[in-house]
Request: fold
Amino acid sequence: MLKLSGVSRRFGQKTAVGNVNLSIAEGEMVGVIGSSGAGKSTLLRMINRLIDVSDGEIAFDGLAVSGLKGQALRNWQRDCAMIFQQFNLVPRLDVLTNVMLGRLNRRNTFASLIKHFSEDEQLMALEALERLGIAQTAIQRAGTLSGGQQQRVAIARALVQSPKVILADEPIASLDPKNAQVVMESLRTINEDDGITVITNLHTLDTARNYCERIIGMSQGKVVFDGGPDDLTTEVAREIYGADGLKDAFSESMTSTSIDLEDGARKKPKNTVYDPQEGFVTVN
Ligand SMILES: Nc1ncnc2c1ncn2[C@@H]1O[C@H](COP(=O)(O)OP(=O)(O)OP(=O)(O)O)[C@@H](O)[C@H]1O
Ligand SMILES: [Mg+2]
Reply:
């Protein structure tokens, strides 16, 4: 259980996140939506401790995450993998090494310094790539991959951290519709099959509706909605995005994951399966 109690973050006079209270159970798939500047990234970054809270407490299974320091903080950041819009890979390094970098904070400093990865670690990284359907790219430089492939490498890197929670900050915002769909399906399958809690910021309403069992709507640093996709009516969406923003949230959705998905499909699209050899494959 991840619990946020009265969490706030201020930047100078600006309150980016104000008095947020949330409980997220193990294994939930949560989408966080809201207009630009609503505080979505700040919220995720506080959970991962990339930034500190100004007030309040974040706890995970009783551990006060918001106060951790040193090794305990690094352990938390290992348990709480982060995926970014811009993938954050090392472009000059090959794909397999990029994935194995996810193991670094599980090892001692010396082993990390010499960047020598054990056979087990190499195997683990390869298996993660296989799961994401991109094992064939293992020896390519990460920078030569398409955006969709790079994001899958980033997810594989997160997986080898053996995380308890995956935080994704607009993981599909830079991807075309097809790749956006593949990446969201990957996240959901990991959530369902491994029971890893996934919290993802999303720009568009329909993506949140299609993939997340729980949606949190933010506006001006506050949580203004917390419920299931069916509770997210146009009325509620207007409150989250404002009348003007709503137009954008919907028009953007035309270019996102709505394409290729059956109308109203929210559960794993029936035709996507995980095959140990092929990774995520679509069967007809
Ligand atoms: N490091 C910072 N210094 C100053 N202000 C910041 C900083 N980070 C965020 N803010 C401000 O906090 C508010 C929330 O920003 P945040 O990035 O969390 O929003 P967001 O919902 O992720 O927006 P977007 O959809 O554009 O990514 C914004 O007003 C932003 O300008
Ligand atoms: Mg953001």
User: Anything to note?
Assistant: The chain has one domain: 2-282. The pocket of magnesium ion (ligand 2) is lined by residues 40-41, 169, 201 (CB under 6 Å).
